[in-house]
């Protein structure tokens, strides 16, 4: 396992649990206790992480060693278009964080209850190998989640309503340095709404 992969695991575990420690990291990466100690000491000596007791913190230098890509969506009925988008997004960086729209957001945006609950949609996304972490979004807006993740790249699906300029402007306001990319479509007629209409 490369040091970069350990740093990525610290980032993911910290997002998932709010913090991480050596024990949790050891379980995640599968290194022996002695090897884990050695690697953490080296990463700390290089200024990539800070170790406080058993807690691990990624320093800005460590965070700069990998690119985080942020995608978001409802992901109600996973279809080939979703997989295409996820694969495209993953190619843009090292860690892909997929953000699942909350049930309340689906009701507000689509005017109906979601077919699949937010937690079930998150679990399905977590099972897709290109997704490093699937989390639930904020019930208020995309920007709260963006601030939590602090990605390097926001990848928008070809048909998402968010405007690139608006996201870039709000990110700058929140002191998040990122780029916004609009992804292409595998097939513009392949949409969840059309699939649902045929059921």
Task: Give structural notes.
With about 200 residues, the protein is an alpha/beta fold. The chain has two domains: about 60 residues, Winged helix-like DNA-binding domain superfamily/Winged helix DNA-binding domain (Arc Repressor Mutant, subunit A), CATH 1.10.10.10; about 130 residues, HUPs (Rossmann fold, 3-Layer(aba) Sandwich). Helix content is about 45%, strand content about 15%. The protein contains ten helices and eight strands. A five-stranded parallel β-sheet has the order 6-5-4-7-8, sandwiched between helices. Helix 5 links the parallel strand 4 and strand 5. The protein is globular. The relative contact order is 0.14. The model has no long low-confidence stretch (mean pLDDT about 90).
Shape: globular
Number of spatially distinct domains = 2
The amount of beta strand, in percent, is 15-25%
Number of strands: 8
CATH H-tier superfamily of the largest domain: HUPs
Number of helices: 10
| CATH architecture descriptor text of the largest domain | 3-Layer(aba) Sandwich
- Biggest beta-sheet profile: 5 strands, parallel
Give the CATH level 1 class of the largest domain: Alpha Beta
Distance between the termini: 46 Å
Structural class: alpha/beta
CATH third-level topology of the largest domain: Rossmann fold
Strand order of the largest sheet: 6-5-4-7-8
Report the average pLDDT across residues.
91
Q: Give the % helix.
A: 40-55%
> What's the alpha carbon Rg, rounded to whole Å?
18 Å
């Amino acid at each position: 396992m490369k040091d970069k992969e350990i740093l990525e695991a610290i980032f993911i575990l910290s997002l998932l649990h709010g913090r991480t420690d050596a024990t949790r990291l050891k379980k995640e990466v599968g290194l022996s206790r002695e090897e884990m100690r050695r690697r953490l000491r080296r990463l700390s000596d290089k200024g990539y992480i800070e170790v406080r007791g058993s807690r691990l913190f990624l320093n800005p230098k460590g965070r700069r060693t990998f690119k985080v890509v942020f995608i978001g969506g409802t992901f109600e009925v996973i279809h080939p278009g979703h997989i295409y988008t996820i694969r495209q997004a993953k190619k843009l960086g090292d860690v892909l964080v997929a953000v699942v729209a909350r049930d309340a957001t689906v009701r507000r945006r689509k005017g109906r209850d979601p077919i699949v609950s937010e937690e079930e949609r998150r679990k399905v996304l977590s099972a897709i190998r290109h997704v490093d972490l699937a989390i639930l979004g904020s019930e208020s807006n995309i920007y709260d989640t963006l601030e939590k993740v602090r990605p390097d790249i926001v990848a928008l699906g070809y048909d998402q309503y968010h405007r690139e300029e608006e996201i870039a402007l709000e990110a700058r306001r929140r002191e998040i340095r990122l780029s916004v990319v609009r992804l292409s479509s595998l097939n513009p007629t392949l949409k969840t709404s059309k699939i649902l209409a045929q059921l």
